């Protein structure tokens, strides 16, 4: 904040009050109808305005002729007008386009450029796309863009990704709203659009698939989504939207349920100097149910799994993963609780936003923005979590000119009533177990006693129960079980949700992040070449009160920062555009690193461009990867930075978990053959292997890309690309056992004392965060075709190929690729079938693949191929500037899974009514 105030002061010293000139005019279409909301901008400055309901505009400038103004509107050809004399009253006619084929984008190079000449692949949704989408929200509509993957954990929790290694909580993808990172500091990733912008305030969304760390830093490992909201100077008046839908049609576990989505926006500008906007939106509904009861018990042969398996471990039933092998009986699991009885499916998202903008001069705008979000969502990670009444607050201050910006923002989260739903089922199962006399036992004895009851009943030692009957034995072991919905069940659920830490299911995170960044474009000053420089500093301030981190006595602070320089030059009569950038980043816990990028764009002729790029990227471990210190009883989960294990010796003195089984097996075999314990120990100890686990470091990627983008006859756009990526240092976990004695003797042999520690229980298991040395590659291609047909019909189609080569890597050392090999999308629509009617249809298909995730202990779960159709038809009420829409997500109500362990996604049918920019 101090930096921004200082810069503001310095700029103000040079600000003089000159004679002003008023520019007025009218903007109309080819039929002489006024265009409302057209943008008028003084070229090279930030001064401008927007047309009113009569298409009129006026603004003042201190510029002396000649100067240029730019007149633009989504759906029309942009015009640049040279003002030679003043005063002047302009009459501007904009020519309508069937489709904007050559839009301007910012995110590809962090400066404005034509999308056709972008040095890398980039996708964009503009205001018309957002208004005409058949999806229930603009965020859902991102899935129609080529190369984009979306995973739905619930109504209010969706994740996007590009180019493989997808996850339900994607910390490899950067999501920005008006330049500010939209992630929650504790989770380490963005919760979809739960805390983002409402559709009503969205102006555009730009998406970069693939590595973008060279310009955006460590989080942009797999790509960037840059969302831009509406400027209150340009979009004024009152707008409102009401949307009502229904889901859970023809489902077994829920009746049809209403979805409500309301939004309101008001913006006002005064004398083209000061403007403000206010936004509020509220979404609520009954979440999709996770009811996949497939038996995934890994110790049961696949052909023996199912509902009749005594060791059944159903995917979305929790507590049944506690299983044991009982001598003479076999493997048995406890009776669990279905997720639908444990989690909160009544989800919502509340978003409040306010912004103040002040034009200090023609080339300087100061803005302050406050965002508040609160909501409930269900998320699939290593467990299923209920993110319940979670809040995220953000303050942002920005100083911006035509060729620079400085911004600072802070983000604070509070987990409130969030909890681990899977852990909740396991914990409730420990509260009601009775001994053989009918008395409830302590929670730490519950599992042992339940299996004792099962064994006694199965063996026929309980009167009235026939021996050898698994159903009868389970019924006896379950006596006293709290039934879902009962008063006892509800009381235990509320108690455990309110209890944070290992003794409860509650989650506590009151973490924050602070970020300041700036950028300056020297291109106009140097003229010989394009030059941009920028940098940022970020601080994570993590606090979980000892529930996840060792932070009982104070929060954990992590500092990181980076800076970049980017050069560009046009050669060969501006047919060849070369670009190069270099970024340096440093996190307090890791060595500094450079990430270069180089690119070339060659204009073959007119609007036909070939692009070539080389990019590098990296991803810092999340704060949790670095500092988690969770003593979970038999195992401690330990983050991988040296500070987190200060005073501990587990990294230097432990055995690999893979060597424990052979050691214990050989020891038992020697004992059975008559060896003394000491002799058996000496015979088996050399099977133990000292672990060699390194401290954690960032993941790395190198990527090559070649592409073509061409515009034919102003109505056919073709965009094709091929990429090849190489990955190293993937983050992973390794389990080790630490004895009390040194692992090795001075001569390098396994220490018998350490081996004895394992037999005596004088040892402890640790799950350590580290990196894999393995290298893997991925490659793929995309093809997109957009064709503007006569009479405003528009057809778009795209296809994506993504493949993964594990090479010689250990599969256990590589995260799940979790991406279909083939994916296609087709959209067809017309925003003006008549003057008042339009429609849009989107069809998507993807093939089957195996999903690997921690929820199923990295074992594969099949995601079957599916296709989905979204559709909408709309009617415009022109006199009141409104639009009525009827639409459907997943029109044919196909129940599909997008991640293994997450719910199946069915149809949402909706109607909406939008009033736009009234009371201007």
From TrEMBL:
Keyword match Transmembrane helix: no
Protein topology in the membrane: Multi-pass membrane protein
Protein's name according to its UniProt entry: TonB-dependent receptor
Domain TonB-dependent receptor-like beta-barrel: 511-891
Pfam entry (one): CarbopepD_reg_2
Residue span(s) of domain TonB-dependent receptor plug: 117-224
UniProt entry keywords in alphabetical sequence: Cell outer membrane, Membrane, Receptor, Signal, TonB box, Transmembrane, Transmembrane beta strand, Transport
Family: Belongs to the TonB-dependent receptor family.
The keyword Transport is assigned to this record: yes
Position of the signal peptide: none
Chief location of this protein within or outside the cell: membrane
Entry-linked InterPro entries: Beta-barrel_TonB, Beta-barrel_TonB_sf, CarboxyPept-like_regulatory, Plug_dom, Plug_dom_sf, TonB-dep_rcpt-like
Organism expressing this protein natively: Chryseosolibacter indicus
Subcellular location: Cell outer membrane
């Amino acid at each position: 904040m101090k930096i921004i105030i200082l810069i503001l002061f310095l700029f103000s010293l040079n600000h003089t009050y000159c004679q002003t000139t008023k520019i007025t005019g009218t903007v109309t279409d080819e039929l002489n109808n006024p265009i409302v909301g057209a943008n008028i901008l003084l070229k090279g400055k930030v001064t401008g305005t927007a047309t009113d309901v009569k298409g009129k505009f006026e603004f003042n400038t201190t510029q002396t002729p000649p100067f240029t103004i730019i007149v633009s509107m989504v759906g029309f050809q942009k015009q640049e007008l040279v003002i030679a004399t003043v005063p002047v009253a302009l009459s501007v006619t904009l020519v309508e386009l069937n489709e904007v084929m050559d839009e301007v984008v910012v995110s590809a190079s962090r400066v404005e450029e034509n999308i056709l000449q972008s040095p890398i692949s980039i996708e964009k949704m503009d205001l018309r796309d957002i208004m005409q989408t058949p999806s229930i929200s603009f965020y859902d509509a991102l899935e129609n863009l080529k190369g984009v993957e979306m995973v739905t954990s619930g109504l209010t929790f969706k994740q996007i990704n590009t180019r493989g290694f997808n996850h339900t909580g994607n910390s490899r993808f950067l999501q920005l709203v008006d330049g500010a990172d939209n992630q929650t500091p504790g989770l380490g990733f963005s919760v979809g659009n739960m805390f983002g912008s409402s559709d009503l305030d969205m102006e555009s969304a730009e998406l970069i698939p693939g590595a973008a760390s060279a310009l955006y830093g460590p989080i942009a490992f797999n790509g960037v989504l840059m969302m831009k909201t509406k400027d209150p100077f340009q979009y004024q008046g009152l707008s409102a939207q009401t949307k009502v839908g229904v889901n859970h049609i023809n489902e077994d576990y829920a009746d049809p349920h209403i979805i409500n989505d309301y939004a309101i926006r008001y913006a006002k500008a005064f004398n083209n100097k000061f403007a403000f906007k206010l936004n509020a939106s509220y979404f609520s509904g009954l979440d999709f149910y996770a009811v996949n009861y497939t038996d995934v018990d890994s110790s049961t042969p696949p052909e023996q799994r199912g509902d009749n398996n005594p060791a059944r471990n159903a995917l979305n039933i929790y507590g049944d993963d506690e299983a044991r092998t009982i001598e003479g009986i076999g493997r048995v699991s406890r009776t669990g609780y279905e997720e639908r009885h444990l989690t909160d499916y009544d989800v919502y998202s509340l978003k409040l936003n306010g912004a103040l903008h002040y034009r200090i001069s023609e080339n300087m705008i100061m803005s302050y923005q406050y965002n508040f979000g609160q909501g409930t969502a269900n998320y699939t990670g290593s467990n299923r979590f209920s993110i319940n009444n979670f809040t995220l607050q953000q303050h942002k201050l920005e100083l911006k000119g035509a060729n620079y910006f400085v911004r600072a923002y802070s983000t604070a989260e509070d987990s409130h009533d969030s909890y681990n739903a899977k852990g909740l089922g396991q914990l409730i199962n420990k509260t009601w177990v009775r001994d053989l006399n009918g008395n409830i036992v302590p929670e730490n004895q519950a599992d042992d006693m339940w299996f004792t009851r099962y064994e006694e009943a199965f063996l026929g030692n309980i009167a009235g129960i026939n021996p050898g009957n698994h159903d009868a034995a389970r019924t006896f072991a379950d006596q006293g079980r709290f039934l879902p919905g009962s008063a006892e069940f509800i009381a235990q659920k509320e108690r455990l949700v309110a209890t944070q830490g290992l003794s409860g299911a509650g989650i506590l995170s009151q973490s924050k992040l602070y970020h300041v960044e700036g950028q300056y474009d020297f291109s106009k000053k140097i003229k010989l070449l394009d030059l941009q420089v920028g940098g940022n500093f970020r601080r994570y301030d993590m606090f979980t009160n000892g529930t996840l981190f060792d932070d009982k006595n104070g929060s954990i602070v992590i500092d990181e920062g980076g800076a970049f320089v980017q050069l560009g030059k046009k050669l060969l009569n501006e047919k060849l555009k070369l670009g190069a950038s270099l970024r340096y980043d440093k996190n307090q816990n890791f060595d500094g690193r450079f990430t270069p990028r180089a690119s070339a764009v060659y204009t073959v002729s007119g609007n036909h461009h070939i692009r070539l790029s080389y990019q590098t990227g990296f991803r810092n471990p999340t704060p949790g990867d670095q500092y988690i210190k969770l003593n979970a009883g038999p195992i401690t989960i330990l983050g991988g930075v040296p500070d987190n294990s200060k005073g501990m010796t587990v990294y230097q003195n432990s055995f690999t978990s893979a060597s424990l089984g052979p050691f214990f097996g050989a020891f038992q075999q020697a004992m059975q053959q008559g060896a003394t314990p000491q002799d058996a120990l000496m015979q088996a100890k050399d099977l133990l292997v000292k672990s060699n686990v390194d401290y954690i470091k960032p993941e790395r990627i190198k990527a090559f890309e070649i592409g073509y983008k061409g515009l034919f006859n102003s109505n056919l756009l073709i965009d094709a690309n091929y990429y090849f990526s190489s990955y190293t240092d993937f983050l992973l976990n390794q389990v080790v056992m630490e004895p009390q004695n040194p692992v090795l003797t001075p001569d390098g042999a396994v220490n018998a004392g350490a081996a004895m520690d394992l037999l005596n229980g004088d040892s402890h298991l640790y799950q350590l965060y580290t990196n894999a040395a393995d290298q893997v590659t991925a490659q793929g291609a995309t093809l997109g075709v957009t064709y503007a047909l006569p009479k405003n019909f528009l057809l778009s189609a795209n296809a994506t190929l993504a493949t993964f080569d594990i090479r010689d890597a250990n599969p256990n050392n590589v995260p799940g690729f979790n991406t279909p090999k083939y994916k296609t999308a087709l959209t067809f629509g017309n925003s003006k079938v008549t003057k008042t009617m339009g429609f849009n249809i989107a069809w998507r298909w993807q093939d089957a693949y195996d999903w690997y995730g921690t929820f199923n202990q990295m074992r594969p779960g099949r995601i079957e191929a599916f296709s989905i159709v979204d559709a909408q038809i709309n009617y415009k009420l022109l006199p009141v500037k409104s639009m009525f829409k009827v639409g459907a997500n997943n029109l044919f109500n196909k129940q599909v899974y997008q991640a293994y362990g997450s719910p199946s996604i069915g149809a949402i049918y909706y109607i909406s009514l939008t009033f736009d920019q009234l009371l201007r």
